[in-house]
Amino acid sequence: MQTDQQTAIADQYGVLIDGRERDASSGETIDVFDPATGDRLTSVAAATESDVNEAVDVAQEGFETWRGYTPAKRCRILNDVARAIREEKERFARIETLENGKPISEAIGQIERCARHFEYYGGLADKVEGESIPLDDDHVDYTIREPLGVTGHIVPWNVPAYLFARSVAPALAAGNAAVVKPAEETPIGALELTKLLHGNGVPEAAVNVVPGEGEPAGATLSGHPDIGTITFTGSTVTGRAVGKAAIDNLTEPHLELGGKSPLVVYEDGDLDVAVEETIKGIFATNTGQVCSASSRVVVHEDVSDAYVDKLVAAVEDLTIGPGVDDYDVGPLASASHMEKVADYFDIGRAELGDPVTGGNVLDRDGYYVEPTVFVDVPQDARICQEEVFGPVLTVSTFADEAEAIGRANDVDYGLVAGVITTDMGRAHRFARDVDAGQIYVNEWFAGGNETPFGGFKDSGVGRENGTQAIHNYTQIKNVCLDISN
Ligand SMILES: NC(=O)C1=CN([C@@H]2O[C@H](COP(=O)(O)OP(=O)(O)OC[C@H]3O[C@@H](n4cnc5c(N)ncnc54)[C@H](OP(=O)(O)O)[C@@H]3O)[C@@H](O)[C@H]2O)C=CC1
Ligand SMILES: CCCCCC/C=C/C(=O)O
Q1: Using CA atoms, how far apart are residues 454 and 217, in angstroms rounded to an integer?
Q2: Is this prediction's pTM over 0.80?
Q3: Which of 87, 206, 310, 423 has a CA that sits 20 to 30 A from residue 394's CA?
Q4: Best mutation site among 159, 256, 294 for ligand 2, i.e. most ligand atoms within 8 A of its Cβ?
Q5: What's the pLDDT tens digit per position in 173-193?
Q6: Which residues line ligand 1 at a C-beta cut-off of 6 Å?
């Protein structure tokens, strides 16, 4: 192992239950690889059904302790957590880059957003308020928002630290205890962050981590009868299974799933802005492995040639290499994911011929592919309908506003959508007519931790981020008193 890896990452990790790290009950482990080189980074315990059951039992004890803290105390602790993450942001960013592959400067930004989640929801911990409901002179009626108990969190591999914090922070702020199943490719950040939480006042039993495979670890957690809710980020296929398991237990799932999000470029829009936002939206952020990537551009036919020329020039200027050296585009997160993206190169070629740029796996160690652009893509092409989750863009054209909106909406997903235009009437019509949970005008990935995020259609159920997400982790109790005598 490299020296810098030794400073960030232990040679072996366990399940982390009640603050104690130990082997899985089966003794089985999973190797974790550096996507930049393909070398083994570490190994992690593969949690079994009995490990997950134990974690949920322990979390029930942790819940009793944590809910007993005053909201003000929880608020102070979560703010201490945020401060501690910021103090160690280089270490956490290095972990994220080593296990996921992304450029280190991008990882620093995502660790900042991870810290911000604890700060933001720490600030809400003492504002989980009920309401008073007027009935008549003989009654007093009010509501209390109570925590759910033990909450389950299944986290993917693309933005592991940020997505860990996105649901764990509001769950803790509302007084719950958590059991987290990180992705098998990227378990290290979740384990190290949890140790930091414990070191800063969160009771050890209140956050537990069960790394391992989707089956059995994730499935046991999502189907566990004693959890109050499950929050899942990942593919639509797995999300459906997780949602069904939750509904079988009569608990409400929060599912943030896939996307095939359109960026519509009108003829009045600034093409330089369009190109810059496309590069950010599908290539230079996490190598396109983002649920809200701008994977489809729909451009007015009068400006499509000019847009494609500028875009291809910008794409071919991008540098590709290891995240630790901060190239523009890092490797994909795993060998299996690289195979999936390479399959889409073949699918796209079979449907459309060669891309105008890219379309190849790089012949070097690690999991690198070229940023790729297919043009003149018909709406029913698989490459235009299916989530690739990599640096692969389709470009289609439109003649008028109705066709633009029609193309934007004509997929099964509805996570986010963006528009490039100088005409604000057009921008508002776009926001009104496009079926997506978040709309970006002249900037991709706008908004932040404070703005509600989640999908229409097959992109999910519920919303994360912002003030209302804390209610994902509470249930309402109504209290009615007869005060007539
Ligand atoms: N943010 C997003 O929107 C993401 C979307 N994806 C999409 O999904 C595709 C496949 O990626 P993949 O990693 O397999 O995504 P999954 O949706 O299968 O995985 C996401 C998380 O769910 C876990 N999981 C897997 N199976 C189950 C199950 N039966 N019950 C409960 N949890 C489970 C995974 O564990 P484990 O790691 O062990 O499999 C991981 O922690 C990608 O190519 C991409 O298109 C993927 C990741 C993130
Ligand atoms: C700039 C990256 C923002 C990430 C936004 C959240 C992504 C979630 C996901 O991919 O699931």
Answers
A1: 25
A2: yes
A3: 423
A4: 159
A5: 999 999 999 999 999 999 999
A6: 154-158, 181, 183-184, 213-215, 218-219, 222, 233-235, 238, 241-242, 257-258, 291, 337, 340, 387, 389
